[in-house]
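This week, think about what follows.
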Amino acid sequence: MSIALIVSILIFPLFATFDIENRVNYCLLHLDQMQTFILQAFLCQDQTAARVSLARAMIVERRLRNTMNQMRTRLIEAHLEPSRFLQWIFNQKRKHIIDLTISEQEDLVTSLMFHVCSLQAMVKQCLFNKYHNDLINELETHFCQLTSCQSMVISSLISPSSITQEIFINRLTNLQTALDSLNSAYKQVRLHRIEDFLQLGVKIQSEDHLSHTFFFFQLDAIVRLLIQATVMNSIREHSKIIKKRKFLKDFFKFQFDWSRILSAIKTTLIIGVGSIFIIVPSLANTFDNGQWILIGLCMTQDNTVGGTFTTMKMRLIGTLFGKIIRKFYFIKRYIRIVCSGSMWAYATYLAAGENSYKIFGMLVPWLLLFGYLKLLSQWDHTAIVAASTPIVINLGRLYGDVFRQDNYVLLRIQETIIGIGLGAILTLLIFPIFAVDLLKANIQGKYQ
C-alpha cells in the first residue's frame, strides 16, 4: 500500500479534487449555455420556434447530467485528500474572487441545475399568446443584458487567466443592476397590462401571470446563488463554524440502530460459516485451504439482499465466465471458457508458461484495458476484479501452495463459485434485508 501510494502521487497524479474542480467549471459553463437556450425559447413568438431552442437545451442537459453523476462519488474519494491545499493550487489565479470548498461547489452546481431546469419546465408550459408576445417585445433588451452580464461573471469564475478583484466586482454589480432593471421593467409592463385589461373589461388569465412570476423568481434565484458564491461575508463564515461544530457533534455521537446491529451480526455469521473451509482440516485439504471461498464471501457482502446479489453478479462476470463453449473438464483438467479474468489468466499460462517477464508482458495490456473501463460506473467493480484475477492466479500458480500445478485456475474458479453460492443462500436465510423494506421504513419515519 505504501508503494502504491507513492507511485500514485509521483506518476500521473489524478486527484479527485482536481476532477471535481474541472467538473464544476464544465457545469457552470454549460449551465450558462443551457440557460441562454431557454431564454431564447422564452423570447420566441411561437411554440414551434421555441421547441428548437428547447431541444438544444435538452442536449446540453444530458451532457450536464453525465458530468454530475460522478461528482458525489468523487467527493467521497476526496475525503482523505488535502483538498483545500489542492484547491489553492488549482485556483491560484481566482482565489480572490471565489473560495468555496469542493462540497460547496457541488451544492452550487446542483442548486443552479435545479433552477435552470425549473425555467425549462416553465417554458415548456408557456402559452405563447398575445399577452406573452407583448411582454417579451418590451423586455427582450433587458433579457439580453442579463444574459450578457451573467455570462461575463461565469467566465470570470472559470477562466484560467487572472482577473482583478475590481473588475470582477464591477461585473457582479452589472449583473445585479441588470436583474433589478429586468424586474422593474416587468413590474411596469405587468401593471400597464392589468390597467388595459380593466379598461377594456377583458377577463385576466391568472395562468399567464403565475407562470411568468415563477419564471422571474427562478431568474432571481440563479443570480442570487452566483453572487452568494463569490462574495465572502461574515454570515458565511459563521455558518461554516456552525456546520463544523455540528459535524463534530454528530461524528462522536453513537447512534443505536437495530438494522445496523442485525447487519453486523449477519456479516459475522456468514464469514464465520466461510471460515469452516479453512478451520476444518478435511475441508481445507479438499479446497486448497479454502481461502478463496472465504474471500468470495467477504467481498460480496452488502447491506441488502439486492445489493449483495448485484455484487455477486459483477464478481462472477469479472472473475469467472460469460458462457461455456465446447467441453467442460473437471478435476485435474483445464476448462475452455470464455471469461474475463480467468480466461486471460489461462491464456497467459498457455502463452507465457512460467516465465515471469512474459507473464508481465501479457498482463500489461489487460491492466490498461480494465484500468480504462474502471472509470465507467457500470464497470467499476467488475473491472477491478477482472484486472486483479489474472495477477492473483498466475502468481498463485508460480508461488502458491499448488506450486507448478495446472489445476490452479480450476481450483480458483471452483472456490469462487462455492463462496458466492454459499453467500447467496446465507444472505436469504440469515436476517434478509430488502431495499424495498428500507425504503418503506424511511418514508414512514419521515412523515410520522
